[in-house]
Amino acid sequence: MVKVFFNTFGCKTNQYDSALLGQSLERSGFELTGKLEQADWVVVNTCSVTKRGEDKACQWVRKVGREFPGVGIAVVGCSVEVSAGRFRELEGVGLLLGTEEKFRLGEVLRERLERINGSGPALEEQRGRIGLTGKYEGREILSAHAERARAFVKIQDGCDNRCTYCIVPYARGRSRSRPWEQIVAEARALEEAGHYEAVLTGIHIGGYGRDLAGRPSLSVLVEKVLAATDRIRLRLSSVEATEVDSRLIELLSRELRLCRHLHLPLQHGSASVLARMGRKYNPEEYKAALDRVLDSLGHPGLGTDVIAGFPGESEKEFEECFNYIAALPFTYLHVFPYSPRPGTPAALLAGRPPVAAVRERVRRMRELSKKKQENFLKEQLGSRLSVLHESRLSSGVSVCRADNYVRAYHRGASPAGGFILVAERTWRDGVWGRLEC
Ligand code: SF4
């Protein structure tokens, strides 16, 4: 049996795509292996969001080509759409499949093996179909995910926004929503397979449903999934603050199975930088949207993304951003230095701040993130956290995740399913708790 090894770069949506690809390969007679040295083929599911991510994938492919001669390499996904040239000439690369084409991997691989009987890598390249039909292409239901407790459920692909720094719409096309019936069926299948949490994921989930008949919104979708399942809890991946509607806020405050955790990407806290980024709000509008959430939910787990060093970012604009973020009750920040992506409007903008200044801005933001995270952990002490088991350390300590995204530890085995931990003290990057009897 032909053995296939996967290496996935990038976001939760990519993780989901790889899980689905793996399932479909298994169903068409391939065997998945977690050991690179046993593989006949290697699939590299790429991410093009930052140059660094793409560099890493390139380096890894080069290493495999050098150390495992004779192994076929299939490079698939975002980078194939926007940077195929970086992979085409690399040793061992036999297949390049774009964002939509990658879902034909099993078929293409099978045809290829039959045609040339597995010998010699002749390069095949298929890409450019993204968004041709304008619809989410019907695919099979993912019935289990490698991670035991948590699974991802993809609800849409692509994005209709054109933030000036972002390569994603070029790599994944316009927004296509997955029919809600498929999503509900998948959530039920994952629940039956024993998963306790489903993360609703996509590229622009706040735009869910705008292209479907009846325009079901994200909140309508969440209601449908909750109604169709019994015990699986739901978590939302990144969603634009201005797209969190009152119905979703109500669900977040009422439904115990919907995690009180939101990741609301801000990107910058200065109006002028946000305008240059092509974001669809200014700092006042973002804060108004956030206040609506906080008025109902108190202090949920609250994350955001920040880009430091965008072209033209002055000291004054950075300070505005820093002070704006410092004043808001975020519980963690994902901070990225600006990474110019060829083909995006921002890559043509002049005035990138000096490297040393960007490094310092990133450092300060990450320091701020650490403080916010520590404060949030202290707030948890004495409270009852609704947690799920994630893994176990060699010392016997169990690692869990609370619904507000706080990491929680306790000694010994965790009960099956969700349970309550009482937070006693901060420990490592989370809290130490005791099981509530
Ligand atoms: S909303 Fe903006 S940053 Fe997010 S994927 Fe779409 S274009 Fe990129």
Automatic annotation (TrEMBL):
PANTHER family: RADICAL SAM PROTEINS (PTHR11918), THREONYLCARBAMOYLADENOSINE TRNA METHYLTHIOTRANSFERASE (PTHR11918:SF45). It holds the Pfam family UPF0004. The lineage of its organism: Bacteria, Candidatus Glassiibacteriota. GO terms for molecular function: 4 iron, 4 sulfur cluster binding; metal ion binding; tRNA (N(6)-L-threonylcarbamoyladenosine(37)-C(2))-methylthiotransferase activity. InterPro entries: Elp3/MiaA/NifB-like_rSAM, Methylthiotransferase, Methylthiotransferase_CS, Methylthiotransferase_N, Methylthiotransferase_N_sf, MiaB-like_bact, rSAM, rSAM_horseshoe. CDD domains: Radical_SAM. It comes from the Bacteria. SMART domains: Elp3 (SM00729). This is tRNA (N(6)-L-threonylcarbamoyladenosine(37)-C(2))-methylthiotransferase MtaB. Its cofactor is [4Fe-4S] cluster. Keywords: 4Fe-4S, Iron, Iron-sulfur, Metal-binding, S-adenosyl-L-methionine, Transferase.
